[in-house]
Every structure is written in C-alpha cells, then in structure tokens.
Amino acid sequence: MAKIIQSDRSEEREPGRIARRLAALGITLQSWPAPHDAKVSALLAKQDLSADEREIVLASVDDRFEDLKRHMGYMARDLIVIHEDVPGLGDLLRRFDSVHYHEDDEVRYVLEGSGYFGFVEPDGGQFLLEVAAGDYLNVPARTEHWFEMKQSRRIKAVRYFTDTTGWVPVYTQRVRQFA
Ligand SMILES: [Fe+2]
Predict the structure, then answer these.
(1) pLDDT, tens digit, for every residue of 87-110?
(2) Structural domain of residue 80, as residue ranges?
(3) Which of 19, 26, 111, 165 could bond to 140 as cystine, CB 3.0-4.6 Å?
(4) Cα of 84 from ligand 1 centre, angstroms
(5) Domain of residue 148, CATH code
C-alpha cells in the first residue's frame, strides 16, 4: 500500500487523501493485487530472473496489459528487476534520481519490493510516494518526478509503453528538497 512522505518527514497513509494529492498532478494510483499463483510467487521471491522467467511473470498479469492496450493505447511491456547485485546499479539509479520528465507516460505496476517516486507540486513543494507490491502508477508525460530506492534495493515492476523512444529522462535541473 502506497504512502506519501512529506518534506517535513510526516507521512500520509489515507488512500483518499493520497489519491487527491496525486490527481492534482494528473497522476493515477491504483491498488491491483499481485498475482496469487504459487509459481509466480516463487519467481517474485527470487533475486533475479531469466528472460523466460520474466515472461512467465508478465504473462500472469497480461489481463491488466490487455485492458491497458484497449483503453490506454499501451503497446509493449517488460519486467524491470532491480536488486543489490545488478551490475552498474549505482549508475542505473543515478539516471533517474535527479528531477526529470519524459515525453511518454511512466507507467509501473509493482509486483515485488518497493521504491520511491518524488513529485513536484504546483507551488514548488515536493513529496515522496513510496510504492510497493500491488501499486499501479501512471505518471503522465511531462510530469516532473524522480525515482530512488533508499535503503530498499529490490523492486520488480512491469513497465508499460506506448513508444519506447519517448521514454528517456529530460532533466529539469530543479533541486530536490529531499536529501
Ligand atoms: Fe522517470
């Protein structure tokens, strides 16, 4: 279940208030239970997954993908697996932990682990959204944000794309209020 961490470090866990805060930025957050299949659960508990194993996990949530294709126009999906032994992990995370936007939506369905999205509000304030298994997040194109892992070093999430060429970070040089 997602929660918001505010710049004074206070936390917001009430789903309705979290949804309204995100909706003001055009961001959608939904709670989609992770798959209950025993084989998929065992794969999600592993540190890393082969290409074939990733496809098994993706196939287990393709009913979600079919809905997104029909209603939102998404064309492709993959499974991102981040863990403490990923080669070049520091460089990978540094690409996304500065404030940036994309020309395409950033759409994630977290299946295991956790991570933090940072957002910039219209008044310039900032907050963190902790996402964990079962959270589906749609960050619209051109929305300023960043992503960080903090002490958590593991996440498995489905990424949905309309066009992968649009999904590169455009850095805005805005300074983060969160250290
Ligand atoms: Fe991003």
Answers:
(1) 999 999 999 999 999 988 999 999
(2) 3-171
(3) 26
(4) 20
(5) 2.60.120.10
Residue 112: inside a domain: yes
Distance 153 CA to ligand 1 centre (A): 17
Residue 80 domain flag: yes
Supply the pTM of this predicted model. Answer: 0.94
Residues 131/143/161/159 CA torsion (nearest 10 deg):
-10
Q: Is residue 179 part of a domain?
A: no
What pLDDT, in 10s, does the model give residues 24-71? 999 999 999 988 899 999 999 999 999 999 999 999 999 999 999 999
Q: Write the pLDDT tens digit of every residue in 73-88.
A: 899 999 999 999 999 9
- Structure tokens, 137: 């997040």
Total domains present in the chain: 1
Using CA atoms, how far residue 63 sits from 35, 38, 44, 68, 142, in Å, is 11, 18, 18, 9, 28
Q: How far is the CA of 67 from the centre of ligand 1 (A)?
A: 23
